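User: Predict Nitroreductase's structure from this.
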Amino acid sequence: MDVYEAVTSRRAVRGFTDRPVPRRVLERVLSAAAWAPSGSNLQPWRAYVVTGGPLAELKRRAGERVAAGDPWDEREYEMYPPALKSPYHERRSAFGHERYSALGVAREDWEARQRAAAANWDCFGAPAALFCYIDRDMGRPQWSDIGMYLQTVMLLLRAEGLHSCPQMAWSVYRKTVAEILSPPDELVLFCGMSIGFEDATVGYARTGRAPLDETVTFVEG
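Assistant:
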């Protein structure tokens, strides 16, 4: 698989089989991803890979919280600005419409939407998950380094025939994640990432992208 195919075939998969992901594959991917760029080579990411019994226990505990209607953990960072301006508001709305329409969930069916969202904390059935942390003393440039690292991981997973789903949703169950991982206090959970082989029986809608001239300006001589 070449780089272009990896980029264009990568998407947030929300349905995985229980086929195990070999440890050697995960090690190969993460060893190569370590070459992702970061300012002054700080490499500010701290990743935890969870499989088997620990992941099953995490899913169980998260599922219990969902079933009990426990309030979310207080966010340690702002996921989106309080008021998204155009065109970002429209893009987010379009994503929500496409996502829930593919599941046959009506906009006004709040309970069904909540059930669909709850699948996040089962990792959509994936047999492996990655949790990415960053030191809370780091600044915005280092948070952007985290994004480059995660994208590199996801593209390498595609090269291995695997799919993924990055999930900031785990940040609101960060205390449950910490019960399993015991991360140092100085770390902030940025996101989780479900990893595995796609379940082709699960329907999905491929979200579109803005036209090039909407996001890119060429300045030529």
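The chain has eight helices and four strands.
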